[in-house]
Write a structure and sequence with these properties.
mainly alpha
Length: about 90
């Protein structure tokens, strides 16, 4: 999970830096610059949310896989115990 946080943080920082550099180097009027800042911020937010959603989906898949493994292991233990009890009764 910390790995995903690092990736998301790096992506967000790189996007913000890229937008800032682009705005500083490109000559434009104040109105255009403000619009570009807003548009860039909205795109960065959308990219960030997409990354977060992807990370959450990946974590959800991993969690479901672990739950399935634990459930299967529990069933195996119960079946093994049942067989031992049946063997004792004979």
């Amino acid at each position: 999970m910390k790995e995903a946080q690092k990736v998301i943080g790096g992506l967000l920082a790189a996007t913000a830096i890229g937008v800032a550099i682009g705005l500083l180097l490109a000559p434009a009027s104040g109105k255009n610059t403000r619009k570009r800042i807003v548009d860039g911020s909205l795109k960065a937010k959308d990219d960030f949310m997409s990354s977060v959603e992807s990370s959450i989906d990946a974590l959800r898949r991993q969690l479901n896989s672990k739950i399935d493994q634990l459930a299967k292991g529990g069933k195996d233990v119960v079946n093994h115990a049942s067989e031992k009890v049946k063997m004792k009764d004979m």
